Amino acid sequence: MIPANSSQPERSAGLPPLVEALRGLILQARQKVLVAANSAQVRTYWEIGRHIVEFEQGGAARADYGKGLLTALARSLTTEFGKGFDATNLRHMRDFYRSFPICDALRRELSWTHYRLLLRVDAPQAREWYMQEAAAQNWSSRVLERQIVSLAYERLLSSQSPSALPAVATPQSPVVPTARDFIRDPVMLEFLGLPDTGRLLESALENALMDKLQQFLLELGKGFAFVARQQRISTETQDFYLDLVFYNYLLKCFVLIDLKTGHLTHQDIGQMDMYVRLYDDQRRGEGDNPTVGLLLCGSKDQSVVRYSVLHESEQLFASKYRLVLPSEEELRQELDRERAAIEERRTREDPPSSSPDHS
Known about the structure:
It is built from 15 helices and 5 strands. The protein has helices at residues 8-13, 15-56, 60-63, 69-81, 87-99, 112-118, 124-136, 141-149, 152-159, 179-183, 186-191, 204-219, 266-282, 314-319, 328-349, and strands at residues 224-234, 239-248, 253-260, 292-298, 303-308. A hairpin with a 4-residue loop joins strand 4 (292-298) and strand 5 (303-308). The relative contact order is 0.06.
C-alpha cells in the first residue's frame, strides 16, 4: 500500500523555481516603488523651485517679501510638512531650478543627493557633464562627490583624453537602493511625511542608554538643561542627527553627545569634531562659549568616553570646562553600569526557552 503522503517530496521538489519567480516579482516591484519615490521627490523639489523663482520674478508687489520670502515659506511649510522644507532646503530647491531649468533634461537615475552635489559645480558645462556621466556610469553620490572634488571634468578638458579620468569613471554596477537605505534617508522620509520612521532602526540598547544618560546629566546638578534629541544639523549636501544636545548654563555652552554601540574609530572622532564646528557656525549665539562634543562608545568589551573641542578652545576647556563637566572616567563608569543593568533586565525578561514538554 502506498503511503498517503508519498507525493509530498515530489510536490516540494517543484517549489524552488516558483519561489525564485515570486522573489523576482517582489524584488522588482519593490525596486519600482523606490525608483518612483525618488523620481517624485526630485520632480517635486524642481517644481517647488520653479514656483519660488516665478513668484520672485512676479513684479514689485511680490518683491516686498525680499529676502524674507524663504523664511516666510519655511515657517508655513515646516509646520505641516516637517524640517525638510526649512529655509535652507527651500534655497537648495530654488537653486536646483535655476541650475536645471528644463525638467525633461533631468536624469531620473539620479537622486536628490546627487543633485545637491551638482549644485556645488558653478560652470554649467561642467555641471551638465557630471550629471550625464553620473547617470551613464551609475555613480553613487559618493563617487560623484569624489569626481567633483578631484576636478575630473577640468582634467579631462586639459588633456582632451578620457584616460585622464580616474579609474573609477569606468561603468559601475547599477546603484540599486534597498528598502533599508530608503528608510535611513531622513530627507526622503520627511518628504513622505514619515520623519520618525528611520528611528525605528535604532537598537533598543542604544535608546535605553540615551534615556539613562539624559537622566544622569540632568540629575547631576551641574547646570545641564536638555535641548533636543536627534537634532538635525546640515552641510550643503548632507544632513546629520545629533543623539543628544544639552546647554550648560554655568559654562554658557552647548554640549553635543554622540553615542556609538561599537568600537571607537578615527572616523567617529573626526565626525564629532565636524559636528562641533558645524554647531558653532549654525547654532551658537553671541553670548555663548565654544561648543563641546562628547563621544561615548558603549562597546561590549570596553566603553570609551572622549570629549571633543576645537583646537582654539583647548585652553578654555582645560581651565574652565573641566571644573564643571563630569570626567571621562565618571561617564565611562556610568555607561558600563547602565549597560550591565540593561543587559541584566533583558536576560530576566527573555529567559532561555525551555525544552519542549514531551509528557
